[in-house]
Predict the 3D structure of the following.
Amino acid sequence: MPELPEVEVLVRHLRPLIRGQTIRGVIVRRAKVLLPTSPQKFRRVLLGAKFAGLSRRGKYLLFQLRARGGGKPLSLLGHLGMTGRIFLASKNRLLPKHTAVALDLGASNLVYEDTRYFGRLTLDNSAVDRLGPEPLGDGFSVETFAQLLERSRQAIKIKLLDQGLVAGIGNIYASEALFRARISPKLAANRLTMAQIRRLQLAIRAVLAEAIELGSTVPLNTGGAKSDGFFYFGRAPGAPDFYEERLRVYDCEGQPCPNCGCAIKRFTQAARSTYYCPHCQRV
Ligand SMILES: [Zn+2]
């Protein structure tokens, strides 16, 4: 499942490819992903619009467009959900089976594909207003982080998945950051000491920044009849081994902890798997 680093890598990849391109046709196969925008409005607004930019907020992609004829600025919000992919595909290829939306850009289609349709591609941007600070930005200070954690008795691992606390962290990087900060995933958020909060803030930044750096080396478009190679670190069939190896605890149950050699353990928190070292993350 894509988290902040995967979305950031995708945004950097797509931004120069779509800038200046005009939407010449709109194909909607799964109206659900547009909600609450109707397919009629989606088509009316986007037809003839031109891509002006692309940015990221949390796990969301924000496409900036200009309405047709140099009209007013528009913003299209994308979220990949569990299994979504957004990529450019040659017009010579048939649209993939699970295409939810395709935007005709002339020589290529910008395809949003999702086998489970949990993602979004919508003109409604309100989801962004509920997000906490960007973890790699100046707004994510130790002081604000500490204030928000103080109000919660949830286990810190579960709290880190709250996009209103800090935006963009999912199940993989929550486990990885807690491991680096040597904090038990079970510890209540309001029980963390200032020293732990400081370590966690730095660990979050480090795991995300490293993942972006590594992901930026992935070839995302292989062209031809092959898939676009789109990443999902460690999970994509055929993904190079080193993507998995860079994770120190996630999906490593039973393997030795890189620090102490103890077996990494897995347990379930809020219906999601948590991975940790019982020795390094005792408190
Ligand atoms: Zn350990």
Remarks:
- Residues 222-230, 232-239 have pLDDT under 50 and may be disordered.
- The chain has seven helices and ten strands.
